[in-house]
Amino acid sequence: VIDISNRQPNTSPLTKEIDGNTYTQFVANEFFTVEKWTINHKMQWDKPHAYCLVSVIDGEGKILIDDKPYDIKKGMHF
């Protein structure tokens, strides 16, 4: 996406603490969003869009999809 307008994009990350976990939104627009979650505790997250790409960049854990658990670890994408 190329934006040639004179508007400055928002490049300041938005960070929030949610139930002991850290959420950072780096950029968001009508086409895509780049986020980082630092997960230290169990959390529930509902996929906000039909398509979502998740990359595990450190650590390991489990994800529950339709009541079925899956092991996830660093380097995996789903």
TrEMBL record:
<dbReference type="GO" id="GO:0016853">
    <property type="term" value="F:isomerase activity"/>
</dbReference>
<dbReference type="InterPro" id="IPR014710">
    <property type="entry name" value="RmlC-like_jellyroll"/>
</dbReference>
<dbReference type="InterPro" id="IPR049071">
    <property type="entry name" value="MPI_cupin_dom"/>
</dbReference>
<feature type="domain" description="Mannose-6-phosphate isomerase cupin">
    <location>
        <begin position="23"/>
        <end position="78"/>
    </location>
</feature>
<dbReference type="InterPro" id="IPR011051">
    <property type="entry name" value="RmlC_Cupin_sf"/>
</dbReference>
<dbReference type="Pfam" id="PF21621">
    <property type="entry name" value="MPI_cupin_dom"/>
</dbReference>
<protein>
    <recommendedName>
        <fullName>Phosphohexomutase</fullName>
    </recommendedName>
</protein>
<keyword id="KW-0413">Isomerase</keyword>
